[in-house]
Design a protein that fits this description.
Number of strands: 0
Number of helices: 3
Distance between the termini: 40 Å
Radius of gyration: 19 Å
Strand content: under 5%
């Protein structure tokens, strides 16, 4: 019985960082999506909406709105900078 318990303990210890990393990535993607939604609604627009083309934000921020799934760390920093520069309060990070 102790062999099985030791195996499970080792499996949990080895697997825990991977679970935490996956959870963190999901949280980053969700937070990035919130930032992107605020940015698109109030400052810029997404590339599929040409109605407000003249009120478009910076190129970096426009790219950041599309990078939330693959490169969320970079996108979060850009979107936070743009929102703070435009006097927005950042949403809570879950």
């Amino acid at each position: 019985m102790s062999r099985t318990r030791n195996f499970l303990l080792i499996a949990c210890l080895v697997g825990a960082p991977f679970v935490a990393q996956a959870h963190s990535a999901a949280n980053d993607s969700a937070y990035c999506a919130k930032l992107s939604e605020i940015y698109v609604r109030y400052i810029g627009h997404d590339n599929s909406n040409a109605d407000n083309f003249l009120f478009r934000g910076t190129n970096d921020a426009q790219v950041a709105t599309t990078q939330c799934q693959g490169n969320s760390g970079w996108a979060i920093s850009i979107l936070e900078q743009q929102l703070i520069a435009n006097k927005f309060t950042l949403p809570a990070r879950d």
